[in-house]
Write a structure and sequence with these properties.
This protein is an alpha/beta fold. 31% of the residues lie in helices and 26% in strands. The protein folds into two domains: 3-19 and 233-419, Enolpyruvate transferase domain (UDP-n-acetylglucosamine1-carboxyvinyl-transferase, Chain, Alpha-beta prism); 22-230, Alpha-beta prism (UDP-n-acetylglucosamine1-carboxyvinyl-transferase, Chain). The strands form seven sheets. Strands 23-25-1-26 form a four-stranded mixed β-sheet. Strands 2-15-17-16 form a four-stranded mixed β-sheet, with helices on one face. Strands 4-5-3-14 form a four-stranded mixed β-sheet. Bound molecules: uridine-diphosphate-N-acetylglucosamine. Residues 23, 94, 121, 123-128, 164-168, 191, 301, 306-308, 330-331 line the site of uridine-diphosphate-N-acetylglucosamine.
């Protein structure tokens, strides 16, 4: 397995292009199962998670063609040849569970493996099932699989979520597009990913209003048709690379970056002393005058501070002036990066869902590893500000969600390289 080696190398300078959004693209790909006509996606990121979902969709009979240097993906689900989503794939990629809504809505039956837990928490799927049952599906659990049936099709209904779930909102939304009558989704996720999914479904002929608010209304239609859709920029990749100049100093321009995708996060960075300038095609991020200052953060569903940027923000707080309190409210086990940051000299106390971080003068390079994607990248960010060499192993986590990370960071002056080995 490869490792990534980072040397703290002073201020960064230059441009980084932001790729298409992984989490959005995965949900758009699953939505291709709703129609027997092709869905063409552009601005597709080249990531292992995207390849994993392609394999699953192919197992359902969907043809997946990659064009233009893998930036364009054409998904053709003319016929669904298999309604079962296998454990071997779903356990690797939780977003696979979002084939449930489309398969059930189109075929009247879906058998999808339960995804199981993962490093950051139990991550239940009860709300996904509740939503589909509300639309009239019968659901039984058999040998680790969710077997959902609706032989006469789904029927529109009012679905009220007790709290916000991005994945469950999206399964409900896709299923409702082909249900008979009107569906109202209350306490819906407002994430940009969900809004982009609704936009793509609308381009495919769905009738949806209210996406981006906490109440989404869907008028079911008979059939969806071909469409071409551009994936939005990856706000988590954007936020991650915004931390790079914040922690190492200098100025980096994130091409394709948009502030509206990350307003709360931008406000927190500014409070920490980071300067952000929005142009019509980018965000320019700089930290020129001294170090960052400690800022408290609590994760929350959009438009709150994203859980997917908590680890990266913690890396910044490790070298900030003062003490910050970071609260994780979405996942119960999402401080796995803290012990690794401590190995680099950070001062962090974790109690339940709260981490108290006292900034230190400087971090020191160390061999580290992480158990999930965002935790891994936080260690690379910390390495940018550390004295000496940081070796991050288990790089496959990074490859799930960051396209050519070492190339993108090298381009702005970071000393970072990938080495092959047993990491
Ligand atoms: C979550 C994040 C999303 C992020 C994604 C990938 C939130 C609200 N969601 O989406 O921004 O991009 O991870 O890291 O920040 N839950 C249940 N039952 C369910 C579904 C969810 O109890 O049926 C719980 C989860 O365990 C979690 C919370 O609800 O504590 C939010 O989960 P959810 O939004 O569904 O997770 P993802 O869709 O994976």
């Amino acid at each position: 397995m490869d490792s990534i080696i980072v040397h703290g190398n002073g201020p960064l300078s230059g441009q980084i292009p932001v790729s298409g959004a992984k989490n959005t693209c995965l949900k758009l790909m699953a939505a291709a199962l709703l129609s027997d006509e092709p869905l063409t996606l552009t601005n597709v990121p080249r990531l292992s998670d995207i390849r994993t979902l392609s394999t699953l969709l192919q197992s359902h009979g969907c043809e997946v063609a990659l064009l233009q240097d893998e930036r364009v993906m054409v998904l053709s689900a003319r016929e669904i040849t298999n309604r079962k989503a296998d454990y071997e794939i779903v356990r690797k990629l939780r977003a696979s569970f979002n084939v449930l809504g489309p398969l059930l809505a189109r075929e009247g039956e879906a058998i999808v493996s339960l995804p199981g837990g993962c490093a950051i928490g139990a991550r239940k799927v009860d709300l996904h099932m509740m939503a589909l049952e509300t639309l009239g599906a019968d659901i039984v659990l058999e040998e680790g699989y969710v077997h959902a049936t609706a032989p006469k099709g789904l029927t529109g209904a009012v679905i009220e979520f007790p709290f916000v779930s991005v994945g469950a909102t999206e399964n409900a939304l896709t299923a409702a597009t082909l249900a008979r009558g009107t569906t109202v989704i209350k306490n819906a996720a407002r994430e940009p990913d969900t809004v982009d999914l609704a936009k793509c479904l609308t381009e495919m002929g769905a009738k949806i209003s209210g996406a981006g608010t906490s109440e989404i209304t869907v008028e079911g239609v008979e059939k969806l048709h071909a469409a071409t859709h551009r994936v939005i920029p990856d706000r988590i990749e954007l936020g991650t690379f915004m931390i790079a100049p914040a922690i190492a100093g200098g100025e980096v321009e994130l091409l394709g970056g948009r502030r509206d995708l990350l307003e709360t996060f931008c406000e927190k960075l500014e409070e920490a002393g980071v300067e952000i300038e929005e142009t019509n095609h980018s965000l320019k991020v700089s930290r020129k005058n001294g170090g960052a200052k400690a800022v408290d953060v609590s994760t929350a569903p959009f438009p709150g501070f994203p859980t997917d940027l908590q680890a990266q923000f913690m890396a910044l707080m490790c070298t900030a002036e003062g003490t910050s309190v970071l609260e994780e409210t979405i996942f119960e086990n999402r401080f796995m990066h803290a012990p690794e940051l401590i190995r680099m000299g950070a001062e962090i106390d974790v109690h339940g869902g709260t981490a108290t971080v006292t900034g230190v003068e400087g971090l020191k390079g160390a061999p580290v590893m992480a158990t999930d994607l965002r935790a891994s990248v936080s260690l690379i960010l910390a390495g940018l500000a550390a004295e000496g060499e940081t070796v991050v192993s288990r790089v496959y986590h990074l490859d799930r969600g960051y396209e050519r990370i070492e190339e993108k960071l090298s381009a702005v002056g970071a000393r970072i390289e990938r080495v092959q080995g047993d990491g």
